[in-house]
Every structure is written in structure tokens, then in C-alpha cells.
Amino acid sequence: HLCSLHIWDALVLGSWDQEFPNQLTGLPDAIANLTQLQSLELSGNQLTELPDAIANLTQLQELDLSENQLTGLSDEIANLTQLQKLNLVSNQLIELPDKISNLIELI
Predict the structure, then answer these.
(1) What does the alpha-carbon distance between residue 15 and residue 42 come to, in Å, rounded to a whole number?
(2) Of 21, 16, 51, 57, nearest to 39 (Cα)?
(3) E strand map for the chain
(4) Sequence-ordered list of residues with C-beta below 8 angstroms from that of 88, at least 6 positions apart, any chain
């Protein structure tokens, strides 16, 4: 029932402990309910893709997806127009969607 708390502005599900890393392989579509979320930390997991529902997080300013297993990003990421920081280090990305150029707030 994590996603019923739609007033959150930050969510940390990242893993810093090498001995006991997180093993998240996916996110529920209900993440779309966190419409006020400004920071989402998902580093050090086993994510291979993001749900299209991520597009509903239009207030998101920081998204850390480093150290996952992402092979691509959907065009839906272009809906995150407030995004200022996007960390994709240490993934399996081959290319980025063309629409990523719509993220004009990226630093």
C-alpha cells in the first residue's frame, strides 16, 4: 500500500550496502499514484525496465536509476518535464529514446 500515500515527495529504494543489496526487479504500476514525488532513488537494484506509469510522476526532479540492469527507456520518460537530474550510470543501455531531448530542465 506504499502507493496509496500520494503526498510523498521523496522515495528511496536504493541500495548502498554491498553485502545486502536490494533486489527489486520491477515497480508496480501503482507508482503512478505518487504524483507529488520529487525525488526517486532506485540505484543498486535489478530493474530491467520502468513501467509506463512512471510518466505520471510529472513533479519528479531527481531520478537515480544507476547500477541496475536497464536495457532501454521508453518514450514515456519524456513526460517527466521537471526532471533536473537523471542518473543512468552502470546499466545495460544501448540507446536512449529520441524524446529524451524534451527534458530541457536536465542539468
Answers:
(1) 8
(2) 57
(3) 10-12, 39-41, 62-64, 85-87
(4) 65, 66, 70, 73
